Amino acid sequence: MIRLLHIEFIKLWNNKSSRFLILAYFGLMTFIAFVSSLKIDYGPLKFNVADIGLFNFPYIWHFNTFMAAFLKLFLAIVIVSMIANEYSNKTIKQNLIDGLSKKEFILSKFLTIVAFSLISTVFIFLISMILGLMHSSYDEVSIIFSDLEYLLAYFVKLLGFFSFCFFAGMLIKRSAFALGFLFIWFIGAEFIPYVYIAANKTKELADSIYQFFPFGSMWNTIEEPITRLSVIKNAVQTVGEEVTKSYEVHWYELVIVLAWTAIFIYSSYALLKKRDL
Amino acid sequence: METILSVNNLTKKFGYLTAVKDLTFSIEKGNVYGILGPNGSGKSTTLGVVLNVVNATHGGFTWFDGTTSTHDALKKVGAIIERPNFYPYMSAEQNLKLVCKIKEVGPEKIREKLELVGLWERKDSKFRTYSLGMKQRLAIASALLNDPEILILDEPTNGLDPQGIHQIRQIIKKIASQGTTILLASHLLDEVEKVCSHVVILRKGEKLYSGRVDGMLASYGFFELKADNNEALLNFLEKHSGFGQIKQENGLITAFLKEEMDAKALNSQLFEKGLVLSHLVKRRESLEEQFLSLTKNQPNQTAKA
Prior knowledge:
Chain A is mainly alpha-helical.
């Protein structure tokens, strides 16, 4: 396992653009986190995000995992190109000839995806922890370590998303087209039909269908945290509406994403096995 | 004899096209084999199958004694097929380190192999800055990293300039002299003739011949003769029971042998008859001539079907 990870690490780390994107991903995460925690004090404009409770434990786990998940697009490029490059350089062929089995090839890529998701999860844990300790109004240990299931959901969400990218790369073999495919899938197969059904039928029907789709299920893992903020809640209440939403992480939503992960990885393996290189 | 590879009734179809048809041959340790055939005769497909990158339609193959899995067997094989495939953004040394990881061997041999192919000075240059000849030599170095039991080369001199071709052939000869089994696919007859001891000839996916290069035709060779009195010489040859076909071209007589006879015996026979030769050469058909006569003798079965 270490050997397979090491093989993939050599390939990725020596590639300038991959290295840049990986560093940019983690750099950006840190940058955004700490910039957002700065107090804005510019003449009449005084604003401190910490004051609205953004960095309070345990809410910060929810908020940060939700926001950080958007940055996964950076790694999507890395993952798609790490597959597609193997095809365009024909190194996949050479790897197999050199004695890597097809299973090992898939496994080395999958382990890399797991490693990315894991490192990213640990990273967001550390950032949130630091931000929380700096700004949170509550700092009892029991509160700090509550609601950690958002981190699990974050991990599963990334894993599912990267597996989809992996599969798209295997299927299409060209980075740009694979990314295009993912985008078209998102817009054409999920976003527009969802909006259409929600508009013409009911939102409940659209939700119940799209919770089983790849992007839909990934989106579901972490509920949006905005309306959970007391500021927003109060604002909504003054308009006369009530936010009745469950913000928890549901185990079955994670299972759906994990099922997609399994389908994507297995299909990639089946594709590779069937193909003549 | 220790068998390294046996291919059994291998068939590969790409849609309607049959690239390899019921092919059977085996590779023994210590010989230099050539797979010979025109472009599109199924050479690369056959190699692709045994190297685990092309799936066979029927039949199969076994490496070594058949107990190791293909990908483990491939760790004891060195192979270069078609074009050298490496990561363009990595240096030669980094690429070879990666191959070492895949083959599960230590990186100690990298220097030795790079020196063998004359690339040690360029080890830190990125692969994409290499010329084709250098890429091909790096591929050979890479294939040798694990001191393989067999080295498989698919058209290793394709697209190289004469100097590059010469360098590659020197390297192959050097490796062969160290006792490594070699399987060389080529459409260049003289390449196979110069390097190989055994040959498998393919045409349109079918095996026409497999065996020793010099045993390809049951032929005893031929004499090229010239004398002042060509008439008398022709007369003598036609009456001689040891000769079959006799041709005369530009004053040079070519007489094909039906039985073994050496040049000395013929010369003394002719001398007794008072015939003095101005030219006497005994030759065997070149592989090219043998190949052409072999492919000519075979009915075109694919056309029939």
